[in-house]
Design a protein that fits this description.
163 residues, 2 domains, elongated
């Protein structure tokens, strides 16, 4: 049948190329009139959460539409209780928490070692008139720069890897 192709899409919500290789978006009435038959197709509805799936399907069938339902809310609930999903999320959570704790402990250890290593330098600066609050601000500023650089580098690395 002659058609005008307006464009193409690589990804579309709910459509996976390996499962549905013959996917297109178009005018169903025109398509069905051209081929002379009505083929199965999918419709997506945004439904008020208070509406029960059974009631919705009863109303749709009452209008003469042959339909079956795939309730996304039920699919999400079933997926959320699958043991392998819970296990994977648990492992990810424990890994993230332990990595964060190790990073904080490492950062504190390096900060303490840096201050101890530069105790003489700080003592000389105090001797020439640097106040205690200025010395604390100096060390805190240095640590803030290190922290900001680490945060920037890790964010850039995360964004690059995710792309």
């Amino acid at each position: 049948m002659p058609v005008v192709i307006a464009g193409e899409v690589d990804l579309f919500p709910g459509v996976y190329p390996e499962e549905t290789p013959d996917f297109f978006v178009g005018n169903l009435d025109c398509f069905f009139d051209t081929i002379g038959a009505e083929l199965p197709y999918r419709l997506w509805f945004r439904v008020d959460p208070s509406i029960r799936d059974a009631d919705l399907m009863r109303d749709i069938r009452a209008r003469g539409v042959r339909a079956r339902s795939e309730d996304a809310r039920e699919a999400i609930r079933r997926a959320a209780i699958r043991p392998e999903r819970q296990g994977a999320l648990g492992i990810l959570s424990v890994g993230f928490a332990s990595a964060t704790i190790l990073a904080v402990v490492g950062f504190l250890a390096i900060a303490l070692a840096s201050v101890k290593q530069r105790a003489f330098q700080l003592a000389v600066l105090r001797g020439i008139g640097l106040s205690v609050s200025q010395a604390i601000a100096y060390v805190a500023g240095e640590l803030a720069v290190v922290l900001a650089a680490g945060l920037g580098f890790s964010s850039a690395l995360g964004i690059g890897v995710s792309k």
